[in-house]
Amino acid sequence: MKKLFWLLISCILGISSLNANPVIVDGIYLIVNQQIFTFSEAEEAMNALRQQVLQEGRTLDEAEIVKRVEQRLIAELLLRSRAKTLKIKASSDEVQERVGLLREQNPQLRNVKDKILQDQIADDFRRQRLLAREVDSKVRVGEEEIAKLCKVQTVKLRQIELAQILLRGEEISERINIIQDQFAQGMAFEEMARALSDDPAAERNGGRLGLFRKGELLPEIENVAFKLKVGQLSDPLETEFGTHLLVVQSEALPNALKCSALNESQRKKFEEEAFQEVRQQAIENYIAELREKAQITVNPFPKGWNG
């Protein structure tokens, strides 16, 4: 078996015993327990990630793209290897049925060879059956996980009415001390904002900025504001606009959830979402366990490789 494996590698590398200088048609990028990905397959995966990042308007440096693809491909081969060890199968009939369905739903696949689709679909069947057997069967979701997810959702829905005192210029520290002392003594924040804030609008609105959900404020302000309780004064916060002192004046929970009294529909929804969260973590743990026991080789791309 090992001889056959290395013979396969030699064929993919395009090594000819008749030529003293091997000609690399492709190459082995990744070996995991005798399962392989070639350089061209890895490059295809990297190009797909680059395109996805571009379409989403994000940026990733090249090192991060290589790292993410490498981790994904390793995980894929670990699962493929484990499925093979456990002799998990996919029948030709179910694979062919899925191929037909995919071609019917996606006309652009008509030019893709049957063998390519069959291999990919068979791998997917085996992977899903492996996870169902070794992961899903052990995932448990109880009241604790449901309640935790419900609380997270409640926080996402939270709206805060925010006010600020903005300070610029000189004697910032002294002015902060005055504001903190007067606030501790019970002076109304609006009065202090009108008298002490360098925000031109403060004299009119008493420092009130409005009602906000997460994602609607500057990140550095949001990170502080949504951790405040109603009526709590923040520590001084620096941004490009100056020094801010924030107060949450009120909060609202539109369509607030009562996590202790969910109806049947709400409970089912949170149970399904909690299962997926717990399952995802269980899959990551499972792959980490497989990786600890695996033989993994990652080869650098040949110099001048252009796919």
Tell me what the structure shows.
- The chain is of the alpha+beta class and 307 residues long.
- The protein has a domain at 159-252: Chitinase A, domain 3 (Roll).
- It has helices at residues 2-13, 39-55, 62-85, 92-105, 114-134, 143-157, 172-184, 189-196, 202-205, 219-225, 264-293, and strands at residues 28-32, 35-38, 159-167, 208-212, 237-239, 242-252, 296-298.
- The strands form 2 sheets. The protein has a 4-stranded antiparallel beta sheet with strand order 4-3-6-5, with helices on both faces. A 3-stranded antiparallel beta sheet has the order 2-1-7.
- The radius of gyration is 29 Å and the shape is elongated.
- It starts with a helix and ends in a 9-residue tail after the last strand.
Give a quick set of tags describing it.
alpha+beta, elongated, three-stranded antiparallel beta sheet, disordered N terminus
Reconstruct the topology from this structure:
Blueprint lengths: L1 H12 L14 E5 L2 E4 H17 L6 H24 L6 H14 L8 H21 L8 H15 L1 E9 L4 H13 L4 H8 L5 H4 L2 E5 L6 H7 L11 E3 L2 E11 L11 H30 L2 E3 L9
Antiparallel strand pairs: 1-2, 1-7, 3-4, 3-6, 5-6
Helix pairs in contact: 2-3, 3-5, 4-5, 6-11
